[in-house]
Amino acid sequence: MSEDAFVRLADITKTFPGVVANDEISMSIRKGEIHGLLGENGAGKSTLMKILYGLYSSDGGDVWIDGERAAIESPQDAIDAGIGMVHQHFKLIPRLSVAKNVVLGMREPASAFRADGDDDGFVSSLTTNRLVQGLAARFTLGLDVPEARIQSLADDYGFDIDVTAPVWQLDVGERQRVEILKALYRDVDLLILDEPTAVLTPTEAERLFETLRKLSDQGLSIIIITHKLKEVKSITDRVTVLRDGSRIDTVETADVSRADLARMMVGRDVLFQIDKDEVTAGEPVLKALDLRTDDDRGIEALSGVDLTVHAGEIVGIAGVSGNGQIELAESLVGIRPVTDGTIRIDGGDLTGAPPRAFIEHGVSFVPEDRHKHGCAESLSVMHNAILKGYTDEAFGDGLRLDYDASADYAETLVENFDVRGVSDVAKMQAGELSGGNLQKLILAREMDRDPKLLVANQPTRGVDVGAIEYIREGLIEQRDQGTGILLLSENLDEIFDLSDRILVMYEGEFVYEVTPEAADRRRIGLEMNGGEAGGAEPQVAVDGGRSES
Amino acid sequence: MPGAGFFAGLANATVNASTVLILAGLGELISERAGVLNLGVEGMMLVGALTGFITTVITGNYWLGLGVAILAGGAMSLIHAFLCISLNSDQAVSGIMLTLLGTGLTTFFGNSYSGNSVSGFPERTLPIVGDLLVEIPILGPALFQSTVTDYAALLLVPVVWLFLYRTNIGLELISVGEDPETADTMGVDVFKMRYLAVIIGGALAGAAGAHLSLAFNQIWSASMTAGRGWIAVALVIFARWRPERILLGAYLFGLFNALQLYSQALDFSLGAGTPLAGVLNPVIDFVMNPTIMSTYPYLATLLVLVITVIRAENRELAQPSALVQSYSRETD
Amino acid sequence: MQVDVDLEARTEVPRWMAYGTPVFTVLAALSVSAVALAALDVDPIAAYEIMFVQTLTTEFGLTETIAKGVPLIFTGLAVYLPLKAQLWNIGAEGQLFIGAVAGTWIGLNVSLPIFALLPLMFVGAGVAGALWVAIPAWLRAKWGINEIITTLLFTFVAADLKNYVVRGPMQAPGANFPQTAQLPAAGQLPVIPGIGFPSGIVIAVVFVALTYLLVNHTRLGYEITFIGANDRAAEQAGMSTYRIYLFVLMVGGAFAGFAGISEISGVQTRLRAFFAPGYGFTAIPIALLGRNGAFRVLLAALFFAVIFVGGSSLQTLLSVPAAIVDIIQALIILFLITAEFFKRYRVSLSLERDPGAEPRGKRPEGEI
Hints:
CATH topology of chain C: ABC transporter involved in vitamin B12 uptake, BtuC
Largest sheet of chain A: 6 strands, mixed
Largest interface: B-C, 52 and 54 residues
Number of strands of chain A: 20
Shape of chain A: globular
Strand order of the largest sheet of chain A: 6-7-8-3-9-10
Radius of gyration of chain A: 27 Å
Low-confidence stretches of chain A: 533-549
Strand content of chain C: under 5%
Mean pLDDT of chain C: 86
Helix content of chain A: 25-40%
CATH architecture of chain C: Orthogonal Bundle
Membrane topology (chain B): Multi-pass membrane protein
Distance between the termini of chain C: 6 Å
Protein name (chain B): Nucleoside ABC transporter membrane protein
Mean pLDDT of chain A: 85
InterPro entries (chain B): ABC_transp_permease
Shape of chain C: globular
CATH superfamily of the largest domain in chain A: P-loop containing nucleotide triphosphate hydrolases
Helix content of chain C: over 70%
Number of helices of chain A: 19
Organism (chain B): Halobellus clavatus
Transmembrane segments (chain B): 6-24, 36-58, 64-85, 92-110, 142-164, 195-213, 219-239, 246-266, 286-310
Oligomer: heterotrimer
Radius of gyration of chain C: 22 Å
């Protein structure tokens, strides 16, 4: 590994409306190193790498490769500059074979037209003719030579892959290897992997790391985006930590402990304190027992979870995304079928009941993706305000829906919850509201029903600071009125500020429970990453309690 | 039982009826493999039929007629391409518009040519061995005593197959119909490929129309395509988006068509003495009724569609994954 | 990301466009069609004078317009209602045929007084149209099979079935033509006494009003609208897309069935093999023009009725092929979807990008 910077990012700045995603970030990557890019969700890791890969353009700053300024304006430019990226969501076409996926866009001609063949007079003059070359690149397709090369690349790195097999036959780990092959086939010098282990089993992840080590031994530079400390410690040479769009530090991995990294990643202990009265929790409003459910791919995402939420308490679920939080939230509000276990809401058994039954039993839900699942952007504020309550008698009897009453109601919500920028609730489209105001509207709709249970998944993600404060206070107020709240958040500050109890979720199970007063942030950060601490952190005891009591 | 002459006639009618479907079906297939459904086949065929016809009437040169028809079909499809690819319009609505437009324009401007006939493509045998091939019983005259457009359609099946599966352009075209976003990140020009596919589709529909007016009927009459454009759309689904199955499907649909002409000669009614004859004969009459038989291509297509969708869960889907999906970098 | 631009675009332009689009569309289509007319040496001004002024100022023209308007209103509703739930009923033409067959059969085979027979014919036609679309509707609701393709395929099957019955089981006894016998007087829609308009218009307007009430003033209408705007959010709020998809398509099928029987009972008086009015396809531009409300569907249908009637007058008076009507229709769709793009384009500009939801596969310069 050389000490010289091979790729250097200088003062990269990128703003989205209302948010500075990257604030003058500089970092350098050495030849042959594995460089971790660590940070919480929303810290700006993906944005930075998308700029490097040409998917976004930066608002300021430069990229230097091998000492020269590089203008990267498209993925093609990045590929030409020797940069490859393995996206979190694979860019593969299932119907096509591995080889075709790899060569797509490269225009490999049939072997007869390859210029690198033997040079016997006429044939070679034909194959080097530009017209013939151009035609061959378009109207032939040679897979034999590429297939052999892909196979030899695969063999080099111990990938057991049939290059002629269609990609739909491959499992997730194999597909990721195809993605890596795609980059290697293009002779990249720098490979970016965006949360590569998010979709892998631990064994597959270990295999991936072996591959990455081999690649770096051969001089390839690797950037691995992650928020898992364990991975950073086990695979990277150096690590750059981002927080809130800024670079905190770049350090040699060997010099820091996981606890140090956790502190750098999560930041100061408390962001802002919210006054919170002590409330004695009441009767249980939610009792889930041995809950199991699958994710969209049919893989078990919840592995037997017990959870109780009492009236008047906020239970915070901390965890790294993709550990079963979405599935937990969705099954508790009836929109994801459970494969096993029971759900009791306010004493009544609602296991297997339709979403409507949950709503009628006083369950409210703030979904993670407010645009996709929380509202209809093309409909008015009024239409969206009554989404959960349109069957109530207040909005008309029998078949009739009283839009005057609905408009009045929507106006009350807008007023009471300080939803800004609404002129006419019946005409203004929900999609025209800013992210924070839309979220306030959704929260208003869900809380105004005085729910027994409120499930809020990432309620403040992508919301401006003013609205965050408002939303958090709203949640506390709702708790004080006796609602049991389940708060799922990847933002630890939020979990600490709001929760009366904290549960840490890891791989579809609760692995740790604590009260915020008794909690140690570093400990929670470690539990989120699977608990067992490495040798570098003797100060953090290994807790055997992997199962929820 | 009908004799060899009957079967020869049936085979001939089948092959004749299938050429239009092969040409238009392959064109629609290419367009759909790139992710663009074009319901304007009927309209593009009509425009091809009329422009080819008028050109041939004026110049006397049916080759020129065919060329103009191909250009006209391509030009019509360009409207669809622009609306669907550049403006992200609803593909179904735009396609129906194209059919309405083609029908309207050809009826409007073809009025004065209505009923005229033209001397178009003659039937020929293939050189050197053609006279021998025609001697093959039943199938010989059907396959080897045909117009150039018939031969061309047959030849086009392997050509399209090779194009889609054995060229880089074909690979890029398919990738654009499967996942335009991935294709884009791999450096494939999504817009160019989709335009190309839609225009090839239009050109082939134009050629199919010219075959109708210059080879098959050698006459112009309004709406002479008589729903063949819609059958071509159905055929692509029936063929589950594979060019080689287009040939099979076109012959099957052509056979349904030919049977309508020959159904009088086919009497499958049971004799008076046969058990259940009284019950079964009306059923047989219904099933063999020429009008009822013309629904078979559509019913067969529906069946294939339903079976494919219901069975294809989590497996290789037959339909291009991005069919009917517009793509642009600006919006989701 | 253009924050300034989208603020302007979102409040003012869409409203202006919502009213301006239909007018712009129609004018643009008529201008281009004028070129086609001029190509046949027809003076476009004179032609449009016949088409619009004469149609709308003569008693004959008005009566004919109303008569043509009735089935167009029904097919317009047949496409409009499913479109509210974001489904395309492309097969209204086929449902119209089946409705016509069923209604005509009842009219010919049931003998009842007019006040009982006519409602029975309409109910029969509506039920037949609804059942005809039930299979595509079920395939969509249960399996997600694209309704555009299936309703279209069913249309061609329906056309053949109609041809079959008028050549076979329902052919008028002893007749040589492929057509049914004439409906009895009790099976024919009367004209409105005094003004002489076909009474079908009353039924059509009643159903426009009912559709308006359904969509705009009922919970069911709210569910339809919401599912049309975001089916996933709707399902999370406890709505059943399965139920709604079946409902809108089958009610749409019933409307198309009404269109069929209203045309046979009110105008044709018998079902002929060549009965292929294309009303089911004209319903597509009607529904597009009237997307924002049932009463706009009514207006759009009447507008197309004027064009249909005017088109036949042109053929009679100036020997202009009536196909000009198809051209105008096609051009209206063409300009309408072009205009839709510009409306959407502004809307997409105004979309705020959520930093959490990073767009994939987009080049930054493309975001502008």
